Amino acid sequence: xxxxxxxxxxxxxxxxxxxxxxxxxxxxxxxxxxxxxxxxxxxxxxxxxxxxxxxxxxxxxxxxxxxxxxxxxxxxxxxxxxxxxxxxxxxxxxxxxxxxxxxxxxxxxxxxxxxxxxxxxxxxxxxxxxxxxxxxxxxxxxxxxxxxxxxxxxxx
Length: 156
Ligand code: RTP
Description:
Layout: E1 10-15, H1 17-21, H2 25-35, E2 38-45, H3 49-55, H4 65-72, E3 78-84, H5 88-96, H6 109-113, E4 122-124, H7 128-138
Antiparallel strand pairs: 1-3, 1-4, 2-3
The structure holds ribavirin triphosphate.
Keywords: Kinase, Transferase
Family: Belongs to the NDK family.
Binding site for ATP: 16, 64, 93, 99, 110, 120
C-alpha cells in the first residue's frame, strides 16, 4: 500500500451497500478529495461471497460475521476505492469515524449519516498491513493509477 508514512501511503476504502443505496457516494468521495487525498482506483461491484469472507476473515468467529457477509454480497453494489496521501490510513479512519456510529464524532461520515453498527456505511483500512492486504484482495495491480494531480502539495 505505497510506502508507510510517506505521501505514497495508500488505504482501501469501501462504501458499503447502505451508502450506495442511500446515494451518499458523492458526499463520501468529496470528503477524501477535499481533504487533499488522491483517488488511485475506484470501482462499483457486488463482491462474491468468497471475497467478502476473505475481506472480513479476521471477524469469522464473531456472531455478526455471516450477516455481515450476506449484507455486503446482497446485490446492492459497494464502491471499492484506493486513496493515497500522507497519513491516509489514520486520517481515513478519522474521516469515517468510530465503528459504532453512536460513538462517532458528529463531523465524521458515520457520525453525520449513520446510527447502527450493522449499517455504518463505509469501511477504511485500520493499519498499513491490512491496507496492503485489502488493496491486493480487491484490485489487480494494473487497476491502480499512477498520476500526478495538477497541484498536489497538500498531502506530500
Ligand atoms: P470496518 O472494517 O468496516 O471499517 O469496520 P471497523 O474496522 O470499524 O470495525 P470491525 O470491528 O472490523 O467490524 C467490521 C464491520 O462489522 C460490522 N459489525 N457489526 N455488532 C455488530 O452487529 C457489528 N459489529 C461490527 C460493522 O459493519 C463493522 O464496520
